[in-house]
Design goal:
- 2 copies of one chain form a homodimer.
- The first copy, chain A, is of the alpha+beta class.
- Chain A has 2 domains: 293 residues, Glycoside hydrolase, family 65, N-terminal domain (Beta-galactosidase, Chain A, domain 5), CATH 2.70.98; 387 residues, Alpha/alpha barrel (Glycosyltransferase).
- In chain A, the strands form 6 sheets. Chain A has a 10-stranded antiparallel beta sheet. In chain A, strands 8-7-13-18-17 form a 5-stranded antiparallel beta sheet, with no helix packed on it.
- The longest helix of chain A has 24 residues.
- The interface between A and B is large, with 48 and 48 residues.
């Protein structure tokens, strides 16, 4: 474990200055509010190596695809999360010297704190400049969870001797994505305003090609009396600044605030964005920094009331789980169906597009249990809204008749990934999207969503599978050739058991839903059938027969085979790998990885996780014991599934070992890649580990089940579950699991195998 | 068939002007001399769409690799054939207007001729300029086969009215590769000289990174009297020019020659290249254009005497086969072990690197039969010289102990291709390199080469296979997982029959050679064994046991299975494909191609071609009948192998159908891609089709066998075979095959199954 961060239940604290940590700290201390967010860059700028990054959800750019060898069907563009206006741009000169941690003579002290309870980032630095002046700089900021158009920051500066200080406060739109493929300009800079009178700056930028308009207005206030007006302003090509010349008095800090409003064409007419952002900034400024901050903290209190998890006896684990839950809440709030959960959230640019199958397979349960159902519904609506593009995507690959293939990576519904073995072959993603529809209904009990919005999506997906299988004369079964399963350390394999299993399930489930929908709402169903040219019983029959005759490779001992030919591999265990060859993806050439037995993340076991109740405990055990030892867990999404399964199998030590790999992945930077951004979607996996793993939470037949199994070293584990208008509190101690109802009507539950009815307290 | 070229036995003639044909004609009319070569660009320049291209064998640039997603083991650079100095740069102005076919008012007539017998490219054009002047331009040029440092050209210009003409003759090094990945500058321009007095221009350029120096000197001569001295000279950043101002007299053409010497650091000290090129140009100029031309044509006479093929009764076929033989001879002359046969030769830039497995699998037999054995030996030496790099390449992929993996594509021995499914997995290429060593010895009878230079290569290759197999507990056999076979429409398959077969053969053959070498030359062998840490009997035993226990997938009916799982595919024939979906590589997404049954080029059948005598005729027939109908022949290397096999099986119509697809592939531009350059290596396949296919030529136990089978419509087929210091003439007519000895000692042959002894005429 890397000791550069202090262990604390609610805070993340970095208390020493090390330039080598800048990028990863920028990631770890990122803040956001579900609509926009930002890496923990220094307000006053930094000339050393760092990654400046402010991101606005849903504002993306179609960067031209870069591949070595083009294959038919590749997307022409790769939609990218876009680095946007730096709204905290600040330049400070003291006696003419720029304040910059990189060039200062000495950093005397440095402390950066992320208060996860309050959602506030703060920093206090003591510097000696090259000119000998000693100064103290304090800064805090937040992206308001209460008013998602607003961000705010407060800074102060004090010097040890009287000095002349120039403080320039502004907005800077001259930003680039580090990972752009062709160094294209992503932005056109529309207008810049710097108004001394109102002490407001505004800039408006528009994305090329996608034509998103983003306006930001910042209103500044210096605390040191009414005379603190800017001395001049400056307009750049892409920036607007106000400059204040001041003389400092030792022992008396200069303090200033900035209140920012951000308006985009996602929510406003493009030509009204400027005005809207000005209005936002003005209104918020009138409310004042302190009240804005209180509103924001209040909203976080509400969020934590529903989603906090407490762990007794293990502060590192406590901090780890809160860190995960904190970032999940910062990344997605479910108020906009155009947004989704990017794998890096607002903490970095890597991986471009915003949604992967991670959303459906790993993130949905967290939002179901910790938020209003409307939030999870937005995630489903995202795919519903992209159905037409998924049908087009399937057409590009030679499918027809309404078959839909959802993209592997997307921002707007179009595929934007281009490794053939992933884009074209990792088609199991379609299954997770169908599974999420079932999961939503299973959790909420709302059949209406499934019928009205779920069914068209299921229809497209079932049609895809029905066309994607082919009949094997040799096997006398339907087979699915040439796929990549969840274990991406195998490419272009035949009959991946997980893919075949979920494909069969999709067809069967869609058939069931079609029949149920028809009898529940014949008219609506008939309209829908007409709209989608649904051949009804003919298609249903076809799906059922293909599902029934699906080839599912297995051994006689009950081991489901990951794919055809799996037993031809050299049968090794991950424990046979020398430490210096791990992770193998950094040490082995791709062909060696592919032909080896080593598994990147749960594959057959992902199927056991999804369809748990269809397999006996023996089958679970046999397959877990066969596959887990071969798994190198080189995806951040791997350990969590293994925690859940190991916990079910009472393999508590294995479960805890796996838990450690997921919960502090970024805080402790296990994979030395936090500098690129955080593993946001795998944070939902950590939540699964705790709630479904150690908490044993399941919903079966509309009834919540709990079966707590406390890891060694934990004295207690408590979490909240929102379920069908109730709030439950679940407490697990060595003595057992207790569940109580905090809110809502009486509810039947099963706790450690015993049916109970929860009554209001 | 596209009628834009005239059918003629010795000439290729384009007699109409069509700007849309410019690029493909530039390819088709390319000239070269094995050391350098050039597309048929217009001397006077052309402002329309075209690809200016002059290439020098062995002068390459390591262009930075471009891939979408990096995989461990990828080469950092992709070595590229380099566009070099344009040595025929000419600018002509008539009354101030630049002569340019693209801007002329009218192209009255246009004729371009490639005289394949003489190796001379010529052109005659009549133009009306926009200023109304009518002119006739004639040009011819050649790259001397006699003196491979020299190129020469002659031009003339006549106008219909007296006019002022400015003729600028020069050298231009301001050239780019169209396919550069990052728009890097490939060249540094070292020096430029334009000397009015001697009428010589020189330029020296040096490649960045690889540091090749190329100096070119052109000496000019205007024929119209001694007064024809240049009026001025001009030096550009990368060019040197002499300009002549002249007045034309109608009916009297202005004529000029240019004699060019090209010296590179491949053959000269870098700082002597300029002087060397000046010396070459001076000497050649003294010899004079006519005598240079006669020397060149004389050398072509010698080449044709050994390699001409005549076909009676089918002028198109006659032209086609000569076009193939002509380009093969232009591309490679075997005088430099650093050179090899690029898939586009000197006719285009596509595919970068110079050598593929094409050289060993398809080209070697042509050079064995049509040239001195030293030429084929150079091709083998090329790989011997790269052995160390092949060992390094294998190490990058995790192999050790001297295992060698030759690159898929290379210029200097390093891998320079980067699709993982090709670079890392199309490892059968190693087999072809071993096969070529056996083939050379089988043909020439020279065991010395095999021992001294062949064995170290075989050793590296056998070691690679011995490490690349793994034991399958399930199959109780050795298997080879994760490969791409010759049929590149399958990737990452297990147990490709061809790969497993050639791997087993390599190990067995290397074991045989080791034992033979040891008993033939114990001391040399012992030295070699020490040098390469050869464990002798232990390794030999290991190879033999792995070869014996190699898994070779097959059906009970004798069909060898292309790979595991092949019978799970939907069993279709290429004839089921709608015409508008062909070629499938232009219409189908990659996953669809991969999971389909369709075969790009001979795969199992490539094994039957290589190891013909190990299979019965029945087995040949069963496998041909199974695979050929599934083959879409979308590689230019596919039809030829099928001609040879079909001919052996007396499927004459199928053989001829396939022959048509190979012999006029570029002349008729079947695949609409001649504009990128010609399919040089597949031209060797055409030769195989004729000589091994219709001629039935084989060498068995040191004895040449012939078994002529004339295609319908041909009255006769004649070709020459050079074999172990003899020259044979083979004539096939409807009445049968006759073979006569043109030169050398008596020789035993087998003709149509009958043993005979050839006596000198």
């Amino acid at each position: 474990m890397d000791p550069y961060l202090k262990v604390d239940p609610w805070l993340v604290v970095e208390s020493a200055w090390n330039p080598a940590d800048v990028r990863r700290s920028e990631s770890i201390f990122s803040i956001g509010n579900g609509r926009f967010g930002q890496r923990a860059n220094f307000e006053e700028g930094y000339s050393g190596d760092h990654l400046l990054g402010s991101y606005i959800g849903g504002v993306y750019y179609p960067d031209k695809t870069r591949v070595g060898w083009w294959k038919n069907g590749y997307p022409e563009y790769f939609a990218k999360v876009l680095n946007a206006t730096n709204w905290m741009a600040t330049r400070i000169h003291v006696n003419g010297e720029r304040v910059d941690l990189n060039t200062a003579k000495k950093v005397v002290s440095f402390q950066r704190t992320l208060d996860m309870k309050a959602g506030v980032l703060s920093r206090e630095v003591q510097l000696i400049l090259r000119n000998g002046i000693e100064l103290t700089l304090q800064a805090e900021r937040f992206c308001s969870m209460h008013n998602q158009d607003v961000a705010a920051g407060r800074m102060s500066l004090a010097t040890n001797v009287p000095a002349q200080v120039k403080i320039e406060l502004g907005l800077d739109g001259d930003v680039q994505n580090e990972d752009s493929n062709w160094n294209e300009a992503f932005w056109t800079h529309v207008s810049q305003v710097a108004d001394d009178e109102t002490q407001r700056c505004s800039i408006v930028n528009r994305t090329n090609k996608t034509d998103f308009t983003v306006a930001a207005t910042a209103q500044f206030g210096l605390k040191n009396g009414p005379g603190c007006k800017p001395n001049h302003n400056q307009i750049g090509d892409a920036s607007a600044w106000l400059a204040y010349d001041l003389d400092t008095i030792p022992g008396q800090a200069i303090e200033w605030t900035r209140i920012v409003g951000i308006a985009t064409s996602l929510h406003h007419e493009a030509n009204h964005c400027l005005e809207a952002s000005q209005q936002m900034a003005r209104n918020a400024f009138e409310r004042g920094y302190e009240r804005l901050r209180a509103d924001h903290v209040g909203r976080w209190d509400e969020i934590w009331a529903k989603s906090d998890i407490t762990i007794g006896g293990d502060v590192a684990a406590q901090q780890g789980i809160r860190f995960n839950v904190f970032h999940l809440n910062q990344t997605y709030q479910g108020d906009d169906p155009r947004l989704n959960i990017g794998p890096k959230g607002f903490t970095g640019e890597k991986y471009g597009g915003a949604s992967y199958w991670d959303t459906e397979a790993y993130c949905l349960p967290f939002y179901l249990a910790s938020h209003d159902p409307a939030v999870a519904r937005q995630l489903l609506r995202y795919r519903y809204n992209h159905l037409e593009k998924a049908i087009e995507n399937a057409e590009k690959l030679g499918f027809g008749c309404g078959a839909a293939l959802y993209p592997m990576v997307t921002m707007n519904g179009e595929e934007c990934h281009n490794e053939w073995e992933i884009t074209f072959e990792e088609i199991h993603r379609n299954g997770a999207i169908a599974y999420a529809i079932m999961n939503y209904e299973r959790y909420t009990g709302e059949v209406e969503y499934t019928h009205e919005f779920g069914f068209p999506v299921l229809l497209g997906i079932a049609r895809f599978w029905a066309q994607r299988v082919n009949w094997s004369e040799e096997k006398q079964k339907f087979v699915i050739l040439g796929v990549t399963g969840p274990n991406e350390y195998e490419n272009n394999v035949n009959n991946n058991w997980y893919t075949n299993t979920i494909a069969a399930w999709c067809m069967k489930y869609t058939a069931d839903v079609a029949e149920r929908y028809q009898s529940a709402a014949p008219e609506a169903f008939a309209d829908c059938a007409e709209q989608y040219n649904f051949a009804q019983s003919a298609e249903v029959r076809d799906w059922r027969s293909k599902a029934d005759l699906m080839y599912l490779p297995a051994q006689e001992n009950g081991v489901r085979l990951q794919q055809d030919g799996f037993m031809d591999k050299e049968q090794l265990s991950a424990s046979d790998l020398p430490e210096e060859q791990r992770p193998i993806n950094q040490h082995w050439s791709w062909d060696r990885i592919l032909r080896s037995i080593f598994i990147k993340q749960a594959d057959v076991l992902q199927g056991f996780y999804f369809f748990e109740d269809e397999f006996s405990e023996d089958e679970h055990r046999i397959n877990f014991d066969f596959y887990e030892p071969k798994t190198v867990h080189e995806s951040s999404l791997s350990p969590c599934i293994h925690v859940v399964l190991a916990s079910r199998l009472n393999k508590q030590d294995k479960a805890y070992e796996m838990y450690l790999r997921t919960s502090r992945l970024d805080l402790d930077d296990y994979n030395r890649e936090a500098y690129q951004g955080l593993h946001i979607t795998s944070m939902a996996g950590t939540w699964l580990s705790v709630v479904e793993g150690f908490g044993g939470f399941r919903v079966r037949n509309g009834i919540p089940h709990f079966d707590g199994k406390l890891p060694r070293g934990w004295s207690e584990l408590n979490f909240r579950i929102g379920f069908r208008d109730r709030q439950m509190k679940v407490s697990i101690e060595a003595s057992g699991t207790s569940v109580s109802l905090l809110q809502g009507e009486p509810l039947d539950v099963v706790v450690s195998g015993e049916p109970r009815t929860l009554e209001p307290a």
